[in-house]
Specification:
Blueprint (H helix, E strand, L loop, with lengths): L22 E3 L2 E3 L5 E5 L6 H14 L3 E3 L17 H14 L2 E5 L6 H7 L2 E4 L7 H7 L6 E4 L6 H13 L5 E5 L16 H9 L4 E3 L1 H5 L2 H14 L3 E5 L17 H14 L26
Parallel strand pairs: 3-4, 3-10, 4-5, 5-6, 6-7, 7-8, 8-9
Antiparallel strand pairs: 1-2
The structure holds phosphoenolpyruvate and manganese (II) ion.
The site of manganese (II) ion has 5 residues, from loops.
């Protein structure tokens, strides 16, 4: 048999690296047996909103907190995020909950600032082919969560990941968050097959974001279970303490109670798919902060 030709994403390819990459995130790891759930509001809006939601998702068993301080909004008149003030609130949420923080960086000029607060740097769908940002992030020491671009093929997505690997950052997590199609009944079209296509072609871990994919809170739980079943390594889910008051993406945000129920369902289902999902009860590592107790 002639040797297989290497794709343009050489280092991201399974041909050069047959073993799965496992990205360590504090006490957790994405890409191994663990099913890792990142949850929190679309945007960091205020201390009580961020800290309250962070506490709620932690108590429901989330592993990483999310929240945007730099928001890529379609209209320049929409809420753009609190920038460094928001990053400080995320740092407080980490202190309160003991969980790591993922947040988006939109501009190369902000990488040092965001890296000084975040545990994982997120590249949003709209910046998935911003090659100068990817080159800059390839030199940072923290893991990068790379979202699939709205109109990107799996090959283009893996080429974007290649920019990160080629510059020296091996800690890359991919995120399928839906793509643009002719369909209008959902905000985007969740391409769950891409999880299979990516895993066949690449060793990098891949998580699914059913919130941005569907735009509908009612679709998030079924799509999350489908993501577990198809072999994704985890989820990113939007949760808000009061979705009806959210400054961004309230329609797709789960209430804390809904998220708690979903985590319980996922924990029950995970073993059937060869996955482990550590809920709060199984995590004595989590230190309790601010005098709160688990009982
Ligand atoms: C987000 O996760 O905050 C976000 C803006 O998502 P996306 O880039 O996938 O639209
Ligand atoms: Mn959002």
């Amino acid at each position: 048999m002639p040797p297989k030709k290497l794709p343009p994403y050489k280092q991201a390819s399974r041909l050069t690296h047959p073993e799965n990459t496992v990205v360590k995130l504090g006490n957790h790891a994405v890409g191994g047996p663990e099913f890792v759930v990142m949850a929190g509001p679309c945007s960091v809006e205020a201390d009580p909103q961020m800290l309250g939601t962070a506490w709620d998702v932690r108590m429901a068993g989330a592993h990483i907190i999310r929240g945007g301080a730099f928001k890529p909004r379609s209209s320049p008149y929409s809420f753009q995020g609190l920038a460094e003030e928001g990053l400080k609130m995320l740092a407080k949420a980490r202190e309160l909950t003991g969980l790591g923080v993922v947040t988006e960086v939109m501009d190369s000029a902000d990488v040092d600032l965001v890296e000084s607060y975040a545990d994982i740097l997120q590249v949003g769908a709209r910046n998935s082919q911003n090659f100068s940002l990817l080159k800059r992030l390839s030199r940072c020491r923290k893991p990068v969560l790379l979202k699939r671009g709205l109109m990107n093929t799996v090959e283009e997505f893996l080429c974007s990941a290649e920019y990160l690997l080629a510059g020296g950052n091996e800690n890359v997590i991919l995120c399928e968050r839906g793509i643009r199609t002719f369909e209008t009944s959902t905000r985007n079209t969740l391409d769950l097959s891409s999880v299979l296509a990516i895993k066949e072609r690449s060793h990098l871990p891949v998580i699914v974001d059913p919130s941005h994919a569907s735009g509908k809170a009612g679709y998030v739980a079924p799509l999350s279970k489908a993501a577990l079943a198809v072999g994704a390594d985890g989820l990113m889910i939007e949760v808000h303490c009061a979705p009806e008051l959210a400054l961004c993406d309230g329609d797709e945000s789960l209430k804390p109670e809904e998220f708690k129920n979903l985590m319980e369902e996922l924990a029950g289902l995970a073993p059937a798919f060869g996955r482990e999902i550590s809920t709060l009860a199984g995590r004595p590592d989590l230190k309790l902060a601010a005098g709160r107790t688990d009982s």
